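Supplementary Methods, section 5.1.

A reviewer requested that the exact input to the structure prediction be made available. We therefore reproduce it here, unchanged from the version used in the analyses.
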Amino acid sequence: MDNSTASDGLPFGAGPPPSSDYHVERSVFGWGIAMSILSATAVAARFYTRARIRHVLGVEDYFILVAFVRLFHPNPVASCEALTRNSF
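The structure derived from this sequence is encoded token-by-token as follows.
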């Protein structure tokens, strides 16, 4: 037997194709990235229009910002405390 095949007779690196779960995971990951970009764009557009064009930021805008930060970090309070602690 030469060195280019494994003990099962298949070439090295050849194996069964990825399972359908692998493709589903990749698809879900891709959609998650796309929706995160879309939500970031929507939040940025809202803050831009409310702050620059209408010159009014309300309480609901800050709640939207908290919800958006919460989307990417499970504990935004801890991250804010860490930022204030390290900034001095």
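Helices lie at 20-53, 59-72, 76-87. These observations are discussed further in the main text.
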